[in-house]
Amino acid sequence: MAGMVLLQAILLLGFGYFGAxxxxxxxxxxxxxxxxxxxxVDIQSFMAAATGAIRALAGAPHNSSEPHGEDRSxxxxxxxxxxxxxxxxxxxxxRDGELIGVQRYPxxxxxxxxxxxxGFVEAHYYTPRVQQLTLDPVRRYATTGTMKRAFPEDIRARxxxxxxxxxxxxxWTEPHVLPFSREVGVxxxxxxxxxxxxxxxxxxxxxxxxxxxxxxxxxxFSRAGTGDSAILTADGRVLARSDQQEESAMPxxxxxxxxxxxxxxxxxxxxxxxxxxDFEDRSYLVQSTPIPGTDWHLVSWLPEDSxxxxxxxxLLIAAIVMALCLVTALMISLWLSRRVTDPIEALAxxxxxxxxxxxxxxxxxxxxxDEIERLGETLDESGRSLRxxxxxxxxxxxxxxxxxxxxxxxxxxxxx
Length: 416
Description:
Distance between the termini: 47 Å
Shape: rod-shaped
Largest sheet: 9 strands, antiparallel
Structural class: alpha+beta
Number of helices: 9
């Protein structure tokens, strides 16, 4: 009976620990998924604001770098740049290779590129570094300096400009060094949605986005607690990651011993929810989701023990304490049961000796239980009475007859 009780208690404790462990895992997984989703929304909002400004410029009806239309285009670009802090540069390139745009770094300026003498000339019209919103637009964007120089290339020869003009489709560039900020970034190109009289794309709008902005987002993931995140390209290169503060010159594939490589292989650039990715003797919770409009995907990873480790530790301590209490209770119950059963077993032995008329040296059975104590006293009295009775009845004869199982009549004769 005690063994059955012990088995039931062990099963109850084991199932309770397993259920609590699964509950803790679910809590950690859901917390990580929610944290990943918040970061995903932030990055999507950032990308939507940047691409939205570029698409708005591409859809404007009067984009032009010609003198009669460039003022209106410049005003539009300044307005779009002021509303989208994600862009480092925003510009429009027409089919003739002439450009009008606004740059934010290294100094705010209006850029114009015109064809001249078989080549191109670039002009920068600088504005105040701090654009006070309290000033009217004319004073806020007033020209404070001018710089002109020969432009060394035909911007239409840039692969992303050429592709967008030819295909009429939006294009995300590969990471490259941005021309003015000298930071690594990407460029989004959107063709003019209003074709010319020949039905062809009249030009493209483009904007530069520094990877510094994306790095700020992924680092916010680790600043909010444990875990890290990264943005990967389709071929596994890292655009930004939170566990490395130093920004590399260009995104590269990570070494095979890097956790990013293990995550990239496990997710394959798709939406994934990996409950346990084992890497270097640790288990990680991994989330992977694509970033709409690009071939990038956002991944985040979290050591499982960083979420559930402390709780599991306390749960394990509680389980050990419960097990110790169970063992203690079992030992106490066995001790108490022995205090009951041992006197009863001793009384049974006394009764058997009395039944065999072995009346000499009968032990006195004592117990803390009153009923057992009274039963012991009764048997003791029975033994004393029988010892007195033996003085009048031949004990040897009675013993022999009892052993043979032959009952006697009251007059001492054998019953037939």
